[in-house]
Design a protein that fits this description.
This protein folds into three domains: 2-49; 56-261 and 325-369, TIM Barrel (Alpha-Beta Barrel); 267-318, no CATH class. It is α/β, with parallel strands linked by helices. The strands form four sheets. It has an eight-stranded parallel beta barrel. Strands 12-11-17-14-13 form a five-stranded antiparallel sheet, with no helix packed on it. Strands 2-5 form a two-stranded parallel sheet. It is 35% helix and 26% strand. The chain has helices at residues 2-24, 29-49, 71-79, 127-132, 138-153, 172-186, 199-203, 205-208, 238-242, 325-336, 353-356, 361-369; strands spanning 56-62, 66-67, 84-95, 100-104, 108-109, 118-125, 160-164, 192-197, 215-219, 255-260, 264-269, 272-278, 291-295, 298-301, 305-307, 310-312, 317-321, 344-349.
């Protein structure tokens, strides 16, 4: 009611001003017509400007096996008015020895902080699982996934479940059937089903198909080929990403957007990528007896050594990959042009202390504001 009152008061004020102008210039019909035409224009202008901005919600992925926020992490996400946390509940992988799909790396939930946020159970499913599983076994896998989600969630209220799978043409039918079966397993519960979507799955959706879900989460990262030794930054290659942004008007699924905050070191040995070391920083490689910087992002290992629990061999190369704030801003500007009418969730990957140290909450707030 307050918004409506303010709106019509504004019209009244404009009417009063226009009336006084007309009165001072004479009460002839010409000015009366001008007054009413101006009034109509003012009303149309106010109606056109009175539309509310779409709601932009901030969220984070949480990709650890034990849920516990530090004080700093909690303060950080609260300063961003975070509403949702997408918690990786467990993975599903194919066990070739037993020839079945098995859950691995289930999360251990601490209950103290969960009530403050909407928790979205997220299940990562390897593509090879969907390739290997027989079509007739998919309903049983769906039932097991749903049961395990609710076992972990216990009494947690659930509004959305997300499945994360980079499906292929070979696995599409099985994966889409899995999604259908999960929806059937949930039944009448008012729970949305979402699926992660990659850029190539939007551009070529006539080939890759559109998953049967309520909405998608566009993963705007891991765009380049991390295994290619000529790749500069596989996490976020904006030139490559832009080449995929041409079919979104035709894509029939509502999309939220996931943006990367993480960094890693790509270890290359004998021209092959052999390891990813999360959160590896340049200042960890400053020992000149062990490392030599060929450029700011490429380092040669001079002496075999351990770093972050991984063993590096003499002759290995490390490519440092991260995401600059300017790249995040440009990503947001590109994505903000997509589907400007619907409310949208912006989800940052992922929440942990080393990751969020690189960005102030004010900077991430600016990223989210781009979508309004």
């Amino acid at each position: 009611m307050l918004r409506e009152w303010s709106f019509f008061n504004k019209i009244g004020i404009i009417c009063d001003i226009l009336f006084k102008i007309s009165f001072e210039r004479g009460k002839d019909m010409r000015n009366a017509s001008l007054y009413f035409l101006s009034l109509i224009f003012a009303v149309l202008l106010l109606f056109g400007c009175s539309g509310e901005k779409r709601k932009v919600s901030t969220s984070f992925y949480y990709w650890k096996t034990h849920f516990e926020l530090t004080d700093r992490e909690e303060a950080y996400i609260n300063s961003l008015e975070t509403e949702k946390l997408y918690l990786r509940f467990f993975d599903v992988d194919w066990n070739f020895n037993k020839n079945i799909a098995v859950p691995i790396a289930s999360i251990d939930l601490g209950r103290e902080q969960l009530s403050e946020y909407e928790i979205v159970p997220t299940v990562f499913i390897t593509n090879r699982t969907m390739v290997q599983i027989p079509y007739d076994d998919v309903p049983l896998l769906a039932a097991r996934i749903v049961n395990r989600i609710f076992q972990i969630a216990d009494s947690l209220p659930i509004k959305e479940i997300q499945l994360d799978c980079d499906w292929s043409e070979t696995s599409r039918d099985n994966y889409f059937r899995l999604l259908d079966q999960i929806k059937a397993q949930i039944g009448e519960k008012k729970i949305q089903i979402s699926s992660t979507i990659r850029l190539h799955q939007v551009k070529y959706f006539m080939i890759t198909g559109v998953p049967p879900v309520d909405k998608g989460m566009l993963m705007f990262y891991n765009i380049g080929d991390v295994k290619d030794i000529t790749t500069k930054n596989s996490i976020l290659d904006l030139k490559l990403a832009e080449s995929y942004l041409n079919e979104f008007e035709s894509y029939p699924l509502k999309l939220d957007f996931a943006l990367p905050l993480f960094s890693w070191g790509v270890v290359m040995r004998n021209d092959k990528t052999v390891q990813l070391i999360n959160n590896l920083r340049a200042n960890q490689l400053e020992d000149k007896q062990k490392f030599r910087f060929l450029d700011p992002k490429v380092i040669k290992v001079l002496k075999s050594t351990y770093i972050n629990g991984f063993y590096l061999y003499k002759g290995d190369f490390i490519r440092l990959e991260d995401v600059k704030l300017t790249d995040l801003k440009e990503s947001a500007e590109l994505l903000a042009e997509i589907d400007q009418e619907n409310d949208v969730t912006i989800c940052f990957y992922h929440l942990d202390s080393p990751t969020i140290e690189k960005y102030s909450h004010e900077e991430l707030m600016q990223i989210c504001e781009t979508f309004r």
